[in-house]
């Protein structure tokens, strides 16, 4: 059997293994091992191939960016800075019908600039924003939908763990991807805000009730917004000006977040230990996935599958736009059954060479990929952000169906923004001067 056929069979095997419930990293590494064995006919060579790929995949300085940004995000989340951000912004939007929903979106946008993890945003604002919106008269399905929908900003507005993962998979610049994420992130936040404002005027019954009376936003001093803005400015400003590399910015941001949390007496030794353990768990999980993806990518290259698919795509005349739309649709559909990282690990090694052959900018392709992947966080049956919101509010009687219903308009808005980013690359790469 020729290597190309073995490569195609390995793709089918990986799909069967993943949908059969095997962990993605194990499926990628295991099938890749069998694929190299079948191509070479030597098990020892296949084992050495896998071992070398696993070692090389994470033995780089740039991988330090993963635990550092995770640590910073968890420290910020644990310190309650997200709660303060929402309270201050909500107070400024008092009297605006649907204003608390818009305040949630804006708070998530600010929070995203210092966390990079959508799940953290969903958990924090489920506890903070939903009770305030419901108390102010907002329909509960709208309240939970706003939180689930706007939580995706955590993976789009830099620093973003998915953008870091994309950079690792494609050996591209983390800094460029972070810069490219600003435009689409702000556009999505603006689209959410416009939708909620229009909905407040068209359907005032969804927002009727006493607004701005005695909520947490009335008791939070405005100066507590300064640590959030200062931390975001320090990290992103350092990256954009070239003063820090992304890895150095992660270290500075993590240190600053911990200093703020301890200095404001928001966390103690017990909370610090919990943050450290959670950082280790998340980092280990991400690195395990990266190892599996590296083995998978090398096996594909060895089999010749990426080159064959690239030649077919170019010869078909599909063009850059057709390819991006087809790829985004496939990724969004995969989001209904797989988590975000798994989708990227499976699709990017195959699709990235095609995008380069078609002349698509790396940063543009990265943002299209991340937005398409993030749509899956809001769609059934495996909408991860939806599950986090529902789990956080289960004791209040919130159901999965209620959250999915509330999040559906936000998923459609994301699809519209994705279309705009595909059609107008300047939204993503304009700040890069390309």
From TrEMBL:
Keywords: Cell inner membrane, Cell membrane, Membrane, Transmembrane, Transmembrane helix, Transport
Entry superkingdom: Bacteria
GO molecular function, one term: transmembrane transporter activity
Principal location listed in the UniProt entry: membrane
Ranges for domain TRAP C4-dicarboxylate transport system permease DctM subunit: 19-426
Topology relative to the membrane: Multi-pass membrane protein
The name this protein goes by in its record: TRAP transporter large permease subunit
């Amino acid at each position: 059997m020729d290597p190309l056929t073995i490569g195609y069979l390995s793709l089918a095997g990986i799909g069967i293994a993943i949908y059969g419930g095997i962990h993605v990293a194990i499926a990628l590494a295991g099938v890749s091992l069998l694929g190299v064995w079948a191509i070479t006919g030597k098990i020892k060579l296949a084992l050495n191939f896998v071992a070398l790929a696993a070692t090389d995949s994470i033995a780089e300085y740039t991988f330090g960016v993963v635990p550092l940004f995770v640590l910073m995000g968890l420290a910020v989340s644990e310190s309650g800075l997200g709660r303060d951000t929402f309270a201050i912004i909500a107070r400024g939007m008092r009297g605006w019908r649907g204003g608390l929903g818009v305040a949630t979106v804006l708070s998530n946008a600010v929070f995203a600039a210092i966390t990079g993890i959508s799940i953290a945003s969903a958990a924090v604002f489920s506890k903070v924003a939903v009770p305030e919106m419901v108390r102010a008269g907002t329909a509960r399905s709208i309240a939970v939908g706003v939180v689930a929908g706007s939580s995706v900003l955590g993976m789009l507005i830099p620093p973003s763990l998915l953008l870091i993962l994309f950079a690792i998979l494609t050996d591209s610049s983390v800094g460029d991807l972070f810069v490219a994420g600003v435009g689409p992130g702000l556009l999505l936040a603006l689209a959410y805000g416009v939708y909620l404002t229009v909905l407040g005027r068209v359907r005032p019954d969804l927002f009727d009730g006493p607004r701005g009376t005695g909520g947490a936003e009335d008791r939070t001093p405005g100066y507590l917004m300064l640590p959030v803005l200062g931390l975001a400015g320090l990290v992103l400003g350092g990256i954009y000006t070239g003063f820090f590399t992304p890895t150095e910015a992660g270290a500075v941001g993590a240190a600053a977040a911990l200093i703020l949390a301890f200095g404001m007496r928001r966390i103690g030794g017990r909370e610090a230990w919990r943050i450290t353990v959670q950082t280790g768990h998340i980092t280990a999980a991400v690195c395990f996935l990266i190892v599996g993806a590296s083995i998978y990518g090398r096996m594909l290259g060895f089999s010749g599958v990426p080159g064959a698919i690239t030649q077919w795509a170019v010869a078909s005349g599909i063009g850059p736009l057709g390819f991006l739309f087809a790829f985004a649709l496939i990724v969004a559909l995969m989001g209904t059954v797989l988590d975000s990282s798994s989708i990227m690990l499976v699709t990017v090694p195959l699709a990235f060479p095609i995008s380069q052959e078609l002349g698509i900018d790396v940063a543009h392709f990265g943002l299209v990929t991340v937005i398409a992947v993030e749509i899956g966080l809001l769609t059934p049956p495996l909408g991860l952000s939806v599950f986090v919101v529902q789990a956080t509010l289960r004791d209040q009687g919130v159901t999965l169906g209620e959250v999915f219903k509330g999040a559906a308009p936000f998923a459609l808005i994301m699809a519209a923004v994705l279309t705009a980013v595909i059609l107008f690359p300047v939204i993503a790469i304009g700040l890069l001067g390309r």
